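Input/output pair, single chain:
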Amino acid sequence: MLGSVLALVALLAYGLSSKHDNQTVLEQFAPGQRQQAPATTLPKLDGGGSVSLASLKGQVVVLNFWASWCTPCQGEAPLLERWQRQITPNRATVIGVDVLDVSSDANDFIRRFGLTYPQVRDADGSKLGSFDVSGYPETVLIDRSGKIAAHYRGPVNQQFFVDQVKPLLRERA
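Output:
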């Protein structure tokens, strides 16, 4: 009996530690192995129209899924803003996707962190599955051809932009 309990506790501990590790996983894809990003159009968070991923073809897109109540999202927001300013001249953009959030909270988040990059809304979370998003924050990196080059689960860091985004800026569509 004690052995069974210890085995169950060990299995639980393994599951928890494995789950934690998966929160900061980078999947990257070589140019010939990239899949087309889902054809998605989302309303702008401010209510002024919508953004279609197809309209961004020719640009590198850092598609960041976030929510105002997500503590790691708060931590990465200033970095995303800094990189938006750096990559914009190179035909690239960060797009924030606010998910399952209260609009007023999301707008407060944007003001608090001084975010200037485009923000869209997936109010009901219906787009999460098509991008294989399972938590917050997650970032999907889309190349100039509209294909998924990388998927990062967890808050992005400086190294993500240096190792993943910068090389894509040199690729042609």
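The first helix runs from residue 2 to 22. The first strand starts at residue 25 and ends at 28.
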